[in-house]
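Problem: given the chain below (370 residues), write out its structure.
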Amino acid sequence: MSRTVRFELLKVDPATGARLGRLHTPHGTVETPAFMPVGTAGTVKAMLPDEVESTGAEVILGNTFHLYLRPGHKVIEKLGGLHQFAQWKKTILTDSGGFQVFSLKELRKIKEEGVEFQSPYGGSKHLLSPELSIEVQEALGADIAMAFDECPPHDESRAYVEKSMQRTTRWLDRCVAARQRPERTSLFGILQGGRFEDLRRAHAEVLIERDLDGYAVGGVAVGEEREMMMDVTALSAPLLPANKPRYLMGVGYPRDLVDAVARGIDMFDCVIPTRNARNGRLFLRDGSYFNIKGSENREHPGPIEEGCACTTCVRFSRAYVRHLFVSNELLAYRLLTMHNLFVYQAHMRRIRAAIANETMAELVREFASG
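Solution.
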């Protein structure tokens, strides 16, 4: 079968199982393991598209839920699709809207037809169904669409998780049937099953039968302890096909990325680098972080991090960036976000090099002790 995306597995690290690969899409090649900056409303907050690209990002995530509500997928389609609308020329993955619905606990009702919810923008009522989720994602022109799923809380009962997982499978089949543009937009399925090993195994078998373009590990990074997140990842990744990309949704901190790659994950997205930047928290290349508001930065003449090649570090001092931040100057968010995204992409390059050089186990130990 002809594929919209093609995954090329280049190497598997013998010590950890970490995977080096390339994901070929209609808008370019993505080196994996890859981190996707989150562009919720068609923009990575505070950044121009070429600035995001300059950090090394090859794929960004767009949000089905928010773009459906504002400005509307039909508006974006009329204006040439999300690539044209947002002026991002590389790969775009869109989430299904399922997680945003999960987070609207007080404003939604889950039914077999889909999820009925009240918009946080004005209170209008909507039904987001598998069919509508696919319609929106194809209208946006995403290279990769995610199947509509239900994401249950991490501490839900086994009975509820099993019922939810079965609904996710039925919704997946409706997503597959609803596709109108498979030659342009690929489809990834989402593995559910909560913290229950037998449910994860059973759901993986179901997903593999559908022979999808890729697979995500869902139901993690939803409030559980880090140890549980990594246990579920270690269980889930090997259940998924070796010749397809594996995506861990909503993760994470730099150490999380290292540990998840060592468990066989290829793709990540998370708001951590951008959201933390807007709150003054800056990441360093060793995975540590500090807050720019600290008084020790008030007269600091050096960059955020010595040796960092991002525009912020090359041109500006900590003292200046701190001044902008405490003065509520908008440029602060741009400069801080630039640095954090650059650090994250440099981190992924370091991970890919470690897999290529078979030193991934050393990198895992380094971050575990840091």
